[in-house]
Every structure is written in C-alpha cells, then in structure tokens.
Amino acid sequence: MNRQVSRYFQLKTKQKEMEQELAELRKEILTYCEEQGISEITLGSYHVKLVKQIRKEYDDTKLFESLQDLQLWRLLSKPDLTRITSLIKLNVINEEQIKDTYEIKQVTLLQIDKK
C-alpha cells in the first residue's frame, strides 16, 4: 500500500504542475490571438480556434431572495446552471423571477486540433 500512496502523491504533484503549465500556455495563446486580432489560426500542423461563450453566474443571496418558496430553494440547494435551466424549461420558475440574480460573463474556450 505504501507504493500506491507514494505513486498517488507523485501523480497528484505532476498533475498540479501540468495544470499550472497548461494555464500559463493557455494564457499566452489567448494573449497572442487577442494581440493579433484573430480567433482562428493554423500554426504548423495545429489548428487553433477561440470560441466565445456567454455564461450566467448566479449570486446565491439574490437568487434565494427571488425564490420565495423554500421548497424551490431546496431543489436548487446550490446554484447550478444546469438545474436552474431545467427548472425554467419545466416552468417551475420563470426567467423574470430570477432576472436580477446572475451576472453574464463571456468566456473564451481554446480549442487546438492536430491536422
């Protein structure tokens, strides 16, 4: 078991280092594309594409205040975009009821494919 624990620790350390390097590389690539004013480019055998997405980030307090029914709040328990969207589609809550409970943020996804 000592070997497994040791290996697990090594892998978690590597994972943290890799995630940090990935974040730095992502930032550099996004900065380069922004400076060049491009959202798509082919570099050697790699195709880089930036995809803009809009996401809602809910404020717990505002959302709770807008939902008078505590049963609804229990269904949500934690603001989760998928659950909230489902409740809106099912007409359990309506968009107007929660309109001031979130902030819209634009997120840029980075896609890199090898040709």
Question: What does this molecule look like?
Answer:
This protein has 115 residues and is an alpha+beta fold. The protein has 2 domains: 1-38; 39-115, no CATH class. It contains 4 helices and 3 strands. Strands 1-2-3 form a 3-stranded antiparallel beta sheet. Strand 1 and strand 2 form a beta hairpin. The chain is flat and about 55 Å long.
Give a brief outline of the structure.
The chain has 115 residues and is an alpha+beta fold.
List keywords for this structure.
115 residues; 3 strands; 3-stranded antiparallel sheet; alpha+beta; 2 domains; flat
Fraction of helical residues: 40-55%
Which structural class should the secondary elements be placed in? alpha+beta
- Radius of gyration computed on alpha carbons: 21 Å
Domain count: the total is 2
Major β-sheet profile? 3 strands, antiparallel
Number of helices: 4
Oligomer: single chain
Report the count of strand segments: 3
Stretches with pLDDT under 50, minimum 5 residues:
none
Residue share in β-strands: 25-35%
- What is the average of the pLDDT values? 86
Compute the separation of the termini in Å. Answer: 43 Å
**Global geometry:** flat
Topology:
Layout: H1 2-36, E1 40-43, E2 46-58, H2 60-66, H3 70-76, H4 81-89, E3 102-114
